[in-house]
Please model this.
Amino acid sequence: MQTAFPHLFEPLQIRGKRLKNRIMSTGHDTCLPTDNLVNDKLIAYQRDRAAGGVGLIVLQVAGVHDSARYTSHVLMATDDACIDGYRQLAEACHAHGTVVLSQLFHPGREIMESADGLLAVAYSASSEHNERFRVMPRALDQAMIDEIVKGYASAARRLHQAGLDGVEVVASHGYLPAQFLNPRVNLRSDGYNGELEQRLRFLREVLAAVRAATDEQFIIGLRISADERDSQGLSEDESLAAAVALQGQLDYLHIVAGTSASLGGAVHIVPPMAIEPAYLAREAATFKLSLKTGWPASWPAWWKCGVLATAWRRAPPKKRFTTA
Ligand SMILES: Cc1cc2nc3c(=O)[nH]c(=O)nc-3n(C[C@H](O)[C@H](O)[C@H](O)COP(=O)(O)O)c2cc1C
Model:
């Protein structure tokens, strides 16, 4: 392990926090919450991960607005009642020196189920249907967009108050921020659609509101699909352009693949064992290179990848596997 990943047990600084190593537990729905709140079972579950030595835990999604309830057991950060549970969870993990973030989430049209079993009313950038859950969403009006942006900010304020170290905004897997970003899903005729900068407006407003509601030490990361792997999904060039444009507002970027919107794209949310380990290393390297060099996202990914591969081959062995 030490030979293959020589930096794995080295610390890593993200904004005001120092991770004791580079092992992270990614956000995953445990189905443990009851009443949409953190409970003793979830605290015990995450405490054990912290005791196991992981440097960073990203907690499962927390809904930021009432329209974000995509399952009956989703955690919600829409009320101050959530603060106490998150505080106990943060303290349990901090006791083991683990940094704790929570995902901030709005699924948009990706609504799986509702608490009472009735078809939920879903909202998105536009009335473009979802193939996998057969949901036809309503287009958000300006008042509701403003409310949802405020929801992200209030949720972040509560998590900050609870003592968490930061948040990861979920723009991956075709969820609401990705629905605004995607020109095949976002068909609006207002200032939230057009060129990249207009399609990024929703995310920019969210990130600015989260920073304003917290403080300068609070970590703000973004999870994004490098490629949604669907004919209607975000392409690698589109996601890369968004990441490059947003980097000034972010402390880290978390790359995944796929989309919840289609069966083919959803395979990548939890890649099955038939998919080889680290299959996104090429995409991660391309993103890292663009973010570090500032090379325009419009330059073809295959060309940048070729340059990277050449540099990689020429690098002396001890310089390989640099991850930060
Ligand atoms: C049961 C389960 C629930 C998940 N829930 C979330 C989630 O809430 N948010 C998210 O961004 N990813 C979620 N994921 C995806 C994981 O974060 C991760 O990207 C995926 O499991 C692939 O990583 P792995 O190969 O290490 O498992 C979930 C995965 C699983 C297995």
